[in-house]
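S1.2 Input.
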Amino acid sequence: MGQDSSDFKLFKDIWAILGGAKTAGVSVENLLYLLLIIRGAKIPFKEREFNAEEDGSQQDENLQTSNEKVPDVLSNNCMMSLTGEFVVRPGGQTKIYKHFKDLYINRIQFEGIKKPVKSVELQFVQSKPQISKKSQKMAEKAREKVR
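S1.3 Output.
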């Protein structure tokens, strides 16, 4: 994956919104929450309103990498609080999902390429039903009893 690819840019967005550049890493909980959103999970109880003054954090400062700003769709819907919690506004999960949808689709397609595909051939045979040998023996025994 080259640095010019769309997936690489989306990975940089993930790094930026989780505050990776600022803290030299991301927490597992925050990454898990974001990955669940990217997969399409809706977790409404985790959404809450926020503003920079209330949280004591600088939203724009938290959502910047060293040389690139995060798209507005992300900076307006999520942020890192001073406590290190990844916060998403109500309705923001859907917008984040839409932003990262290509990354998710590319990942699913890549997984599909790696797995061997079994070819299934449907054979439509124009034949009559056949009786197994075991069933034939049972039928013969029943006929003998009747005779």
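S1.4 Remarks. The first strand starts at residue 78 and ends at 80.
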